[in-house]
Amino acid sequence: MWLVTLVRALFDGLRRRCPRCHRGRMFEKFFTMRTHCPICGNQFERSGGEVSGGMAVNIVATLFIIIVSGVIVGRSTSIPLLPALLVLGVVAIMFPIMFYPISRGLWAGILFLTGNNDEADDVYRR
Ligand SMILES: [Zn+2]
């Protein structure tokens, strides 16, 4: 059962939908994330600092793609190096921009799974 919940929350994150009700849209516009679900009121991210988690997801995915592509290009003798490096450069710039909403959605799904989106901000200040 926990595996279904895990896969569903991450799938909802990929779709940028609320991990609790699976219907509410996380984003108003392409780059503008809502703080709460418009349908069930689920808080997507606890505070503004949570954006760094989505950025970490984005950086890891971008590095993975660049490293795998670099290894494929580096091992191949039939792919011309200069055009391949230009394409990798464009991918390294464009992918994190286009992946930004999905990475924040995935992070919101992870926060939902761990329950960290429900904690109060002042829980560590005591
Ligand atoms: Zn919801």
List the helices and strands and how they pair.
Elements: H1 2-15, H2 51-75, H3 81-114
Zinc ion is lined by residues 18, 20-21, 24, 37, 39-40, 42.
Mean pLDDT, all residues: 89
The CA-CA distance between the termini, in Å, is 36 Å
Instruction: Describe the main β-sheet briefly.
Output: none
Count the beta strands: 0
In short:
By secondary structure, this protein is mainly alpha-helical. The protein is 58% helix and 0% strand. It has helices spanning 2-15, 51-75, 81-114.
Give structural notes.
The protein is mostly helical and about 130 residues long. It has a domain at about 45-120. The chain is about 60% helix and about 0% strand. Helix 2 runs antiparallel to helix 3. The mean pLDDT is about 90. The structure holds zinc ion.
Keywords summarizing the entry:
single chain; 0% strand
